[in-house]
Amino acid sequence: TASAIAMGQISPEDGVDGSFDLLYEISDTVTTGKWVGDCFIYINKTGRLNYSVGGNIQNLVHLDTSAAGTTKHRILGYLAKEDRVYLVDKSLNISSHKVMLAVLQYQTAVMRGDFDAANELLPSIPESEYTTVARFLESQGFKEEAMAVTTDSDHKFDLALELGHIDVAHNLLDEIPEEERDSTDTLAKWKKLSDLALKD
């Protein structure tokens, strides 16, 4: 890059060729954004507060939009000690939304393939966020890890079936309370499990 500048090989439109490597591209129209570590938190033109970790976009909330369908909000900043992103609208009203830094750091570690760091971060994430973490892991193709993390029994059951873990799925069905065992949902799960068992 320095040699290109010294030799005058700078394009007014493109800059210096090869200065940056494009890692990920967001196809949204970003109206306002903020970097939090390796995570990009942004609002798109339709009023969705999203964040992108390693090219994977997660929606946090749908914000109010104007009559024209465009967002009225701007990001003021992110306060890590509060785990909140702060927004301001055109009337200067301030609002905030919870965005857990530990979850962002965990997802970043997973995207880098650093499961040692991710496993160290997991205890700092509240258990109420484990299903969100598990869905992220599943979206990245880490279904075994997702099954180990999720606290949602339906999600765990579906993952167990996908992975062919008949014993795990069976144990989950055995844990269903007596009053729910004859429900349509439970009977459908037993059918899925029996169909999978017959295939093996």
From TrEMBL:
It comes from Minutocellus polymorphus. GO terms for molecular function: structural molecule activity. Residues 106-199 form the COPA/B TPR domain. GO terms for biological process: intracellular protein transport; vesicle-mediated transport. Residues 13-89 form the COPA/B second beta-propeller domain. The lineage of its organism: Eukaryota, Sar, Stramenopiles, Ochrophyta, Bacillariophyta. This is Coatomer WD associated region domain-containing protein. One of its GO terms (cellular component) is membrane coat.
